[in-house]
Amino acid sequence: MKFFIDTANVGEIKQAAALGVLDGVTTNPSLVAKETGKFEDILRQICEIVDGPISAEVAAIDYEGMLREGRTLAALHKNIVVKVPCIKTGLQATKTFAEEGIGVNMTLVFSPTQALLAAKAGARFVSPFIGRLDDISEDGMNLIEQIVGIYDNYAFETEVLVASVRHPLHVVQAALIGADVCTMPFNVIDKLIQHPLTDLGLAKFLADWEKVKNR
Ligand code: E4P
What we know:
TIM Barrel, 11 helices, binds erythose-4-phosphate
């Protein structure tokens, strides 16, 4: 499973990259709005830190506007993947981007039919938002299971990028299902390694070593 960090914060991206397990980055307009500086400058900095897919979302919702913005974003760096919302014009833009060799991450996906369309249009990634489904009492992970099953049935190459991840259990469940990618906020990445028994065990080993090290 590939790990992406879900942030536009360069400091967090540097910390996650330093762990050696980071494969890519996803951003969205809300995440970018939390940071200062121009979007393009933030993207250029991110591309210098992480050598993997970096998702950058278009703000346009019309076909021509999406193409214009997406081509500009894609020209910034070879690793930029254009994030496009799952609406009719987004589907059309995805098809055109795919024909031009520009990678697309179809975002705001909440149903298996949307994911099927994203794959048929040639998206490189599909982003089902599981946390937001959980928020309205729907089982987000059930959607991941359905999409992975559908893509397997037809050998679609679109990668299932689990988004709107809120806690480590989401990561575990997505990995058990066999999703290709999980994008998560820094605080979730940070929690993945933590275990109280590791801390207790280490404290005991260090204390015992104090007793023998000067023998
Ligand atoms: C990433 O691609 C998505 O935009 C992000 O995971 C959404 O997360 P949220 O539902 O916590 O805002």
